[in-house]
Fold each of these.
Amino acid sequence: MESMKILPSGAGCIPHLNAVILGESLATEENDFVLPSEEFASQANVQSPEQYLKMYKRSIEDPAGFWSDIASEFYWKQKWGDQVCNENFDVRKGNINIEWFKGGITNICYNCLDRNVEAGLGDKVANYLKDIGVKKGDAVIIYLPMLMELPITMLACARIGAVHSVVFAGFSSESLSQRIIDCKPKVVITCNAVKRGSKVIYLKDIVDTAINDSTQNGDVIPQYPTTCPVEWLDAEDPLFLLYTSGSTGKPKGVVHTTGGYMVYTATTFKYAFDYKPSDIYWCTADCGWITGHSYVTYGPILNGATVVLYEGAPNYPDAGRSWNIVDKYKVSIFYTAPTLVRSLMRDGDEHVTRYSRKSLRVLGSVGEPINPSAWRWFYNVIGDSRCPISDTWWQTETGGFMITPLPGAWPQKPGSATCPFFGVQPVIVDENGIEIEGECSGYLCVKSSWPGAFRTLYGDHERYETTYFKPFAGYYFSGDGCSRDKDGYYWLTGRVDDVINVSGHRIGTAEVESALVSHPKCAEAAVVGVEHEVKGQSIYAFVTLVGGVPYSEELRKDLVLTVRKQIGAFAAPDKIHWAPGLPKTRSGKIMRRILRKIASRQLDELGDTSTLAEPNVVNQLIELADS
Ligand code: WTA
């Protein structure tokens, strides 16, 4: 092992990136750092910590120069005005406002397709949409499985300036109808049915239930011409809205605009995956979530990347399916979620090792913290100890990667998302909103905007400010807890609000609670997340029944079914804990801290229960824990 090399840390905002140079790169328990191979580093887009620091420093000190150089590589019908970025990021100074490349006229679909390929894939569907009267600014809901038609429809909307809102096809008809009511789309695009593993799911029936109206389907498309003129848009015109969970029951319509999102997703994709034109890229995310927007559709296609799209389940017909696909299509960049890594890890190495996987060169992880043991298995077994892992931390709200390794640039640490992307200034604050320096832990915030930032919540700018900018004035608050180590590496520790992350899917506890209490026999419900070996977290619900109703297995099933129906199967509670009462403060607030401890059976860590209105409730809950 060579000696530690301390790199210049520059201005306060530049992370301390102390590179420890190790002789080998096998990720073992003892090795804190995992180095990219020399072969990898020498061909990488960013090859050293020094090169990263130089670029990062410029992105912070001269964001306008940094981002306008990158934006100039895209096609703009008209260049943006004098100001690259115009922002108010501080609620104390007025309304939050973020604008990038304002006045610039472009089209993201044009940049994805026309700029990169001769024949536009999005053209066919776009003409159909225009014919039925969809115009610039109209909302279009897309409720489709991961068929080729899904990204094509997104691009078609973008081409004509319609605002797409993809609803994950695992959502129930009731969730879909809630979103239809909120964004009032001109059309809902779906398909008849999809196979998931061996099961057939009839999507069109779900849509019919949601809108109670069966009209056109895809059969009409072939009669349309194969070209469609582009609708030119301002950089700040909306591109899409995507609903995500928050700490109240009502989903939030996160709004992303055109220009900044385009520049940001393309750039993050290029650097975080060390993208080269020869790469074959496969991301296992569904377009119903942000990952499928930014890193199945826009980011890769803007780079002209070859993308593998897979509509099936990753473990069907067997646990080796992913590697079968990797070998068949020579996938070189594979981007997935820790939950899949953990479940494949449980299925055994033999499903992996019987495939070659030699085309792989970069791996990626997203959606939740990846625990070091899953990281090592991903690295050593899937990647044969040769492929760097980009553990990308970001959110629906951020549009693109915020904290991520640049493979090839610096050593990695299993379980850490490493350092900020260009232009991103993460800060850790304490509960009073005071920024903490150096090695510390606290709440993860971001200082000043980045091009891919969301601009508002659809129809509710006030909620946007209250949720994200008021908790710690002067910063964007992510909702995540985080620590920073002595080398300046960031370690995400999970949500600090009432949001649970199940298999990388964001679910608000309040959404599940309101589904449960809609059952006529349920009086009250409190939902918490508990650690789960494969899913990261699972949903654990404490349920109080209406007076006189007895507990029964049948009722338990019925409650779970209610949640499946109202939200979707992915939000079904794993455990219903019968509760004669819930622990509340004297002012009536449910003490979730105590419920979390009971749910995870950490009974010696219940803490102070003396402030409870009825301290005895806790003992009753413990007695009923395994009934
Ligand atoms: C979590 C998904 C740790 C985090 C892109 C965040 C992560 C939430 C990571 C956003 C990661 C996402 N390490 N935690 N690499 N990536 N998260 O909006 O809690 O579906 O706040 O976006 O997922 O989930 P969302």
Amino acid sequence: NKGTDFPPVRLHNGGEYGYVGTHTVVELIEAGYIVVVMDNLANASMDSMRQVNEITGKQMPTFSMDMLDKDALRDLFKKHKILCVMHFAGLKTLGVSCNKPFLYYKTNIGGTISLLEVMKEFGVYNMIFSSSATVFGSPSYLPIDEKQPVEGCTNHYGNIKYFIEEIIKDICTAEKQWNVVLLRYFNPVGAHVSGKIGEDPQGVPNNLMPYVSQVAVGRLKELTVYGDDYDTPDGTGVRDYIYVVDLAQGHVAALKYLEKGCDCKMFNLGTGKSYCVIEMAKSIETASGKPVPYKIAGRCADDIVSRYADASLAEKELGWKANLDLAKMCEDLWCWQSNNPTGFSTES
Ligand code: WQD
């Protein structure tokens, strides 16, 4: 449907210079959409967008600005007719968010409200929001479906996503012209098959798979496994690792769903499969042929033992499901990491 079934549309992506955002821009362009990109570069580099341009052969209009800057937002909306906003923007580092609540609430929640207000000023009522399975906190049952209550959780990052979901739901209840899809990501991993884009967190990675791949490539010495005494197959934490390109294609499916009008809907984007920590480290060893030494440490406070999705609603309503298996995810992750041992270029 390269612009035939669906007219090319302009999408405004907040925060898509980052990991999931860049992969989603590639899939949107592949699907025939026209994309306008925006990011404040707090946790991303311009190089990631240059790589997207190389992969797609397209030069997107890009705006380096902050969603708290309403005048800059207005300038973007004046310049481009936006059909839908895909909102990825926000600070994410778990450990930091607890110590800097003002920064996190102002940026993530204040920024979202600023974005929604300017969207309304320009009559743009369609949004896809990058939410997270962390809103479920410690799951009350597994696999996790969309009916599971999300009363917020001890995890600060998950709480902010929960607050933003509730704000958006309230707006959609009060003003029926809004169409919003909240996508709850499980654990995105892997990289585009080209090896040109991938996950490149600033500083020492908080998340498992970028840490493991940086050990394999020799950038970090060894993996610390936080707890091996959980009630799981190998005693370590269990997660639903979803290939980032599958996740990105979930956004395209959500956009097509939203174009028919949808009020406010939530979907879990996961695979329904689950893997333990050491299993993931071994998968990268197999994919890379490199050792991933690790040591066992105590559990992290408030860490979730096991979290994986019932993704059947997204399959039924969006016609989307994750396809890639663990081995291929790790192969593509290694292709990115071995091609970019020190991550994206920092040249501006
Ligand atoms: C996975 C497992 C750790 C690092 C993420 C983030 C966020 C969100 C998904 C989208 C756990 C263990 C980790 C390490 C380890 N994404 N681990 N050593 O905990 O699900 O959090 O959820 O919103 O990315 O909130 O993922 O990758 O941090 O940890 O042993 O150095 O690996 O204890 O069991 P998590 P993670």
